[in-house]
Specification:
This protein has about 650 residues and is an alpha/beta fold. It contains 27 helices and 14 strands. The structure holds adenosine-5'-diphosphate and magnesium ion (MG). Magnesium ion binds next to helix 18.
């Protein structure tokens, strides 16, 4: 942190701590307490929604589980805070794993449905298990004791402040670690995550578990805060509000979560008080009109785009004077706000402000810091046994059938260690399919693959990646919202062995691993000539640079075998020259390469052996010159071009 940031944070914390003493009004103290508790839920929900990109409408249910864990423990066992909070975290985290199961199979609207059903089932269970939960009657409890002293309203508020800060630091550290990068990689490209040895399966569950633990903690704090819990608090409206708060505040920012929590706590209060609502909606209408007016003046908005928010906000203000009661309109107002946010503020309020002020995200500053560290040694470790000619990979009788189509038909492929093996053939001949079979993305209909003497059958993509096969993709599969440096750091995920507590507490092993990985990532970026762009988001890089970044990320796996799927496609001539030099250097480091390529000059100048596929069958194999002169090959290519 920079000194200014540190001072700002200290001032904010001091203000938060001093608030109850300064204000004294229990109503406002409770309001701010609720905002803090919701913020803890939102930190967790943002991990799932903002980082891994999954939808969850089950978080009100998880929040309820946390609340009831604390409530039941207090009611049945008179348990202390030291037991209830950890128990709520652990128990709810377990349910998080349960909620993650559907996320492994479905996504999008289907996942929303399933998680919604989960929330509903939890609510029904709480309602029906009267022996434990007192059913619809609810549970009444008092503020907890700490060190034999019963906390009053203000003291409990401070407990919540401590928990908020602890959660904030925990979440922040986790998200900036290899775990956070794994979560974010899932959203960017699940296939690429798996092929970087970051198991999508494992980290989806992990994200849901951490997220649920936070919801559980918040639920327990909420139970003490309200001093009464009943099943219908954890309903559909609540779960929609949580999601709305993340989207409105802005994904992937803690400030956004705090802002979102504030909005969803204050909004219902606003809708309960018609007088206040009228004032606020008029202010909003003025604000929107002025903001849109300025944007239009500066030519940042067309007239058509500008009219809708102005008319909409004025209509809302008008409506507030026509209506006699707002309570019945709550959900409609939420709906309108959601629509507005989705349409105009896709990155949430915080994202919008950042864009407007041209502030850079944290990733960029990270990379700047890292770039100043001078990495020592070579980025690529020397692979052992280079060029000894032994067999590294052997595929036998591969058949890959998609319905009636045989994309690969009885293909054998032998790759010798230390060579560059070209794989060529017309479009649709099965080259990429072969890559997908070799990396475990497709399970072949028949045939076997063995790598470094071990059979690959039954292994997942991420296992195969970790055993030493890295790849790039024909359609670039970068983690778009992550910086170039972070993309390479995902490839270095396998170098991290730190556990969650080590990450959260910044213990020495984690700090060492982080430092080493950062230095290596910078080294790899330098290797492909991208060190100046380390802090740039991958999606903003020019196409040619994206291809090079994919190679750097693949090399981060420290592979024995590197698969390059048309790395020169779409590149300009100077870029291709640069690429050639890089592939040459990779070979010099003893990494074996399979190269799919359409540029014949590239294939001819680099490859030791070339295999030719046509309609899923291997039609020729040998040294480049011989293959180029082969009748069948010429015919396949001419035929391909004619078609
Ligand atoms: P290449 O990379 O040589 O251009 P591909 O391996 O991408 O060719 O494709 C070979 C054939 O397999 C094509 O006809 C393609 O349509 C088909 N194919 C590839 N993947 C799938 C899939 N997942 N489902 C159905 N057909 C596929
Ligand atoms: Mg292809």
């Amino acid at each position: 942190m920079k000194p200014q940031q540190l001072i700002a944070a200290a001032v904010a914390v001091a203000a938060l701590v001093a608030f109850p003493v300064a204000v004294g009004n229990p109503y406002y103290i409770h309001l701010v307490e609720t905002i803090m508790i919701y913020a803890i839920v939102l930190f967790g929900l943002d991990i799932v929604v903002g980082y891994t990109g999954q939808v969850s409408l089950g978080h009100a249910g998880l929040f309820g589980i946390g609340a009831y864990t604390a409530g039941v423990l207090v009611m049945k066992l008179d348990a202390s805070l030291w037991l209830t909070l950890p128990a709520a975290i652990a128990f709810t985290a377990g349910f998080g794993a349960l909620l993650a199961l559907p996320a492994l199979r479905v996504s999008g609207p289907y996942l929303a449905m399933v998680t919604l059903a989960f929330g509903t089932i939890i609510q029904i269970l709480i309602n029906e298990m009267t022996f434990l939960t007192e059913g619809p009657m609810g549970i009444t409890l008092t503020k907890p004791s700490l060190f034999g002293h019963r906390l009053d309203e203000t003291e409990y508020y401070w407990v919540v402040v401590v928990m908020l800060l602890a959660s904030l630091i925990f979440v922040h550290r986790v998200l900036r670690s290899h775990l956070g990068r794994a979560f974010e990689a899932l959203r960017g490209s699940p296939v690429a995550s798996d092929c970087m040895g970051v198991s999508v399966y494992k980290y989806k569950v992990y994200a849901f578990v951490i997220s649920a633990g936070l919801a559980g903690l918040a639920g327990a704090l909420y139970a003490y805060s309200e001093q009464y819990i009943s099943p219908n608090t954890y309903n559909f409206e609540q779960t929609v509000l949580f999601l709305l708060a993340v989207i409105m505040g802005g994904r992937k920012t803690r400030t956004g979560a705090l802002l979102g929590a504030t909005i969803i706590v204050l909004l219902p209060k606003l809708l309960d008080d018609l007088g206040l609502f009228r004032i606020v909606s008029v202010l909003l209408a003025v604000l929107v009109t002025v903001a849109v007016g300025v944007a239009y003046q500066r030519g940042k908005m067309t007239l058509k785009d500008a009219v809708i928010p102005v008319v909409g906000s004025i209509a809302l203000a008008g409506l507030s004077f026509v209506l006699q009661t707002m309570t019945d309109w709550r959900l409609s107002v939420f709906g309108l706000i959601t629509l507005f946010v989705v349409y105009y503020l896709q990155d949430g309020i915080v994202g919008f402000v950042r864009n407007a002020l041209n502030l850079r995200g944290h990733g960029a500053t990270d990379a700047d810091e890292a770039a100043q560290m001078a990495p020592s040694g070579d980025a690529l470790s020397q692979a052992t046994g280079r060029g000894d000619g032994g067999t590294l990979l052997e595929a036998k009788g591969i058949l890959m059938q998609f319905g009636g189509l045989k994309a690969l038909n009885n293909v054998d492929l032998t790759i010798r260690r230390g060579t560059i093996h070209g794989l060529i053939g017309p479009n649709g001949s099965g080259k990429s399919t072969m890559m997908n079979v070799l990396t475990g993305i497709y399970v072949p209909t028949a045939g076997s693959v063995s790598f470094a003497g071990t059979a690959q059958a039954g292994r997942t993509s991420s296992d195969i990646a970790l055993s030493g096969i890295a790849r790039t993709f024909q359609n670039v599969q970068l983690f778009g919202e992550m910086t170039a440096l972070q993309n390479v750091m995902v490839g270095l995920h396998h170098t991290f062995h730190s556990t969650l507590p080590e990450v959260a507490l910044h213990l020495p092993r984690y700090l060492r691993e982080h430092g080493d990985a950062t230095a290596r990532a910078i080294g790899l970026l330098r290797f492909v000539g991208l060190s100046d762009l380390a802090g740039e988001e991958a999606r903003n890089l020019p196409y040619g640079k994206q291809r090079l970044l994919e190679i750097a990320r693949a090399l981060a796996l420290d592979p024995q075998l590197l698969l390059l799927d048309e790395p020169a496609a779409g590149l300009t001539a100077p870029d291709i020259k640069e690429l050639l030099a890089i592939i040459q250097k990779i070979r010099e480091h003893g990494v074996t390469v399979i190269l799919i390529e359409h540029h014949m000059d590239v294939v001819m100048s680099l490859c030791d052996t070339v295999s030719v596929l046509d309609f899923g069958q291997k039609i020729a194999e040998g040294v480049p010159a011989a293959v180029q002169a082969d009748e069948k090959v010429i015919e396949a290519y001419l035929g391909g071009q004619a078609a």
